[in-house]
From TrEMBL:
Organism: Flavobacterium profundi
Top-level division of the source organism's lineage: Bacteria
A GO cellular component entry from the record: membrane
Start and end residues of each Methylamine utilisation protein MauE domain: 3-137
Pfam families: MauE
GO annotation, biological process: methylamine metabolic process
Keyword Chaperone: no
Protein name: DoxX family membrane protein
Localization in the cell: Membrane
Annotated keywords: Membrane, Transmembrane, Transmembrane helix
Protein biosynthesis in keyword set: no
């Protein structure tokens, strides 16, 4: 009976680690953005790791996949189980921290393919921890599936294929796009709120500094004069107590000089968006290719605009440096990083419908009708 339970746990843990890892390996940039969110000063306060987020993301997801393979084939059982245990303890801490302190809304465990709340992620990790502990205390039942040479070859092949996949998606775009901005989706429809959809409910909360600590005090307590005498008012905010319906696309904007041009641009029959979420972090190789595409697109009747979160001075400087003749508009950096995993990246629209997305390495593959 113990052997049967162990083998079931072995298969479940191995497959789950492989699937979870492959989903994140399909989009390592997206996972690196999630790690940056964790490293932020407001969460783990480990900002020194932010420049290394992409390297850490690639290492973690490849290690996750290879560990899953190693468990399934029975390769170096002791090392595999200790590694699995260490990894799940770390993940469980992160998901608990996200849930208990309400710091990160989505752990990124399954990328954009499956969104889990912090509490759901924490429960998932607790279950995985239990399964890995079953394996840990029943190691004698985990036997290699075949000979040593074949085991070594399998692990080497898994590792090599993961490296190739990581390189490919970083040089191009994710193989499968799970985001709301994938090819074929209409941005206007993604922004719509269905009739009768539940609305968010808010509670007014006041923040006072009490003995040097920012403390939330409810509106009712403030009105009842229950604020301590030594309290110093800091701020007022609306706290969500019931989350309403949030459309898949809710933060898309095209702003310039205080005006939003979303409706105008999305009604255009042919548009090319040249997206560079951060000009300072953009690749020079890609920036040099944008003006040539701009001229080709305009010759075929396309409206061409740039989208960035960089400030006006930086936009002007880059336009002069690379002789760019298209205008840059502002959009939230998180939104731009979500739209296309390239900096710069190219998105082709037809009346708000995304018909093509391209990494700057594939700019020659942009189809202009």
């Amino acid at each position: 009976m113990r052997n049967i339970i162990t083998q079931i746990a072995r298969v479940l843990v191995g497959i789950l680690f492989i699937i979870s890892g492959l989903i994140k390996l399909n989009d390592p940039l997206g996972f690196s953005y999630k790690l940056e969110e964790y490293f932020n000063a407001n969460v783990l306060n480990m900002e020194f790791l932010i420049p290394m987020a992409l390297i850490i993301a690639c290492f973690v997801v490849i290690f996750e996949i290879v560990l899953g393979v190693m468990l399934l084939i029975g390769f170096k059982t002791k090392f595999t189980l200790w590694s699995l245990l260490g990894m799940i303890v770390f993940f469980t801490f992160l998901t608990f921290y996200s849930w208990y302190f309400d710091k990160v809304k989505d752990c990124g465990c399954f990328g954009d393919a499956l969104k889990l709340t912090p509490f759901e992620s924490f429960i998932k990790d607790l279950i995985l921890t239990a399964l890995i502990l079953i394996l840990f205390f029943n190691q004698k039942y985990i036997k290699p599936l075949y000979g040593k040479s074949a085991l070594n070859l399998t692990v080497f092949a898994a590792y090599s294929l993961c490296l190739l996949m990581a390189y490919y998606v970083l040089q191009h775009l994710p193989i499968i796009d799970f985001r709301a901005y994938k090819v074929g989706n209409n941005i206007q429809k993604g922004m719509e709120i269905p009739e009768g959809a539940p609305k968010s409910e808010y509670e007014m909360v006041f923040i006072y500094k009490i003995n040097g600590v920012d403390t939330e005090i409810s509106y009712a307590d403030v009105m009842s004069n229950k604020v301590p005498e030594n309290a110093e008012f800091v701020d007022r905010k609306d706290k969500v107590i019931v989350e309403g319906y949030i459309p898949p696309i809710h933060d898309f904007s095209i702003e310039k000089d205080g005006a939003n041009y979303v409706e105008t641009i999305l009604e255009e029959p042919k548009v090319v968006l040249l997206i560079t979420y951060d000009l300072n972090k953009s690749k020079e190789k890609g920036m040099k290719k944008l003006e040539e595409l701009n001229q080709k697109a305009k010759a075929k009747g396309y409206e061409v605009i740039g989208l960035t979160a960089s400030d006006a001075n930086l936009r002007d400087a880059f336009q002069k440096q690379f002789n760019l003749t298209f205008d840059y508009y502002f959009c939230d950096p998180t939104t731009l990083k979500t739209i296309v995993r390239a900096n710069p990246g190219i998105v082709v629209l037809e009346k708000g419908t995304i018909v093509q997305k391209v990494h700057f390495n594939d700019i020659d593959k942009v189809i202009l009708k």
